[in-house]
Amino acid sequence: MKRDYQRINDVRRVVATLALAFVTVQICTSTSAADRPDPLPIPNSDAATEAEMKPYIELVEHANAKIDMVAIPSGKFVMGSPETEADRRDDEGPRHEVAIDAFWMGKYEITWDAYEVWMSDLDTFRRTALNIEPNARDKAADEFQLSQPTEPYTDMSFGMGTRGYPAICMTQHAARTFCKWLSAKTGRYYRLPTEAEWEYACRAGTTTAYYFGDDASQLKEHAWFYDNSEAYAKVGTKKPNPWGLYDMHGNASEWVLDQYIPDFYASDAGRAERPLAIPTTLYPRVVRGGGWDDDADRLRSAARIASSEEWKQQDPQLPQSIWYHTDALSVGFRVVRPLVEPSEAERAAKWDKTDPPQIDAAE
User: Fold this and answer.
1) Where are the domains of the chain?
2) What is the C-alpha to C-alpha distance for residues 204 and 211, in angstroms, rounded to an integer?
């Protein structure tokens, strides 16, 4: 029996490797933005200039899922925290000015409602059940269904709730792949925010420790965190920041695109306009905002949290999953969509670039 089980696993690994190779070829030979399928028609989702940007609600076809998007204006801000800020850490400096281009950002953290459509093939099953012929967007998105998460060994919500609650426990790789799927599924380019974009959106023009001020005693009105929660809450149940974004402090901490580099702000790359620390190693990478199980100081606008291999400590699978962090019960993400969509070459060189390649050998 043990040899049979090993033989089955060997076959699964071969199938997974071939599927990954197929996806890689498809991605590398994908058509240009001009040749991609037409976007799903959504009111207010089109804008040629920043002045035309409006909030809109993105829909996931063949599923009961939506993603509210908020328009974030371009501008400059001072990133990092002053040395006088309470609970400040050395990696939050030196403070420096950063330029940010206009983009849309998720009003809320991505919920299980949307995440499970990709994670569990819900749209594919629905098309099959209702005899719906896949359209061009469906076919493009199906490429990323091949590279979706393997079945988790347990309920990754850990019983805290799914409908309307933030999706959690995914690796940055999983969050990035979801964004690729969502981009294909909708015809609009989505990705994770950079660390700079995230802090800019969180601050919403403020310069204090939190977007509402420096007094942490007010945090309970704006955030779910260690002092007022024993689990995450439905998104959007606390006060929003000045730009209408909810749960930027607490509930689920949020993946950004960046590698965690403690002294990044002091480097030439960290001080460049539109900075991004392109990942070159799996750990550590950056999450922002703090979560329901974090202390108040980790929720500050400038606070940086580094991922760790310890986030997989209880994963019983060998090899451990590239999709799940079993011990990161407050780590989620939200998506952004830049007003000016980068070219395929720009995406490959910067925005979608991450090393080392992830291969799911556990299938």
Assistant:
1) 2-351
2) 7
CA distance 75 to 52: 16
Tell me the pairing of strands 253-259 and 103-106: unpaired
**How many C-beta atoms surround the C-beta of residue 23 within 10 A?**
17
**Distance from C-alpha of 12 to C-alpha of 361, rounded to nearest angstrom:** 8
In tens digits, the chain (363 residues) has pLDDT values of: 333 333 333 433 333 333 333 333 333 334 445 567 899 999 999 999 999 999 999 999 999 899 999 999 999 999 999 999 999 999 999 999 999 999 999 999 999 999 999 998 888 888 989 999 999 999 999 888 776 788 887 899 999 999 999 999 999 999 999 999 999 999 999 999 999 999 999 999 999 999 999 999 999 999 999 999 999 999 999 999 999 999 999 999 999 999 999 999 999 999 988 999 999 999 999 999 999 999 999 999 999 999 999 999 888 877 889 999 999 999 999 999 999 999 999 999 999 999 999 988 655
Helices (H) and strands (E) in the chain, counts: 8, 10
**Per-residue DSSP letters for 59-97?**
EETTTTEEEEEEEE--EEEEES--TTSTT--GGG-S-EE
Beta bridge partners of 181: none
Which numeric CATH code is attached to 2-351? 3.90.1580.10
The strand pair at 331-332 and 253-259 is best described as parallel
Contact between 177 and 148 (Cβ < 8 Å): yes
Q: Which of 293, 288, 83, 284 lies closest to 203, judged by CA?
A: 288
**Contact criterion met (CB below 8 Å) for 155 and 148:** no
Q: Which amino acid is at 233?
A: A
Query: What one-letter code names the amino acid at 136?
Result: A
The answer to pTM > 0.70 is: yes
Say how far apart CA 238 and CA 107 lie, in whole Å: 13
Separation between Cα atoms, residue 287 and residue 12, nearest integer Å: 32
Alpha-carbon distances, residue 232 vs 219, 235, 313 (angstroms): 15, 9, 21
Take residue 98 and report the two structure tokens written for it: 């950063």
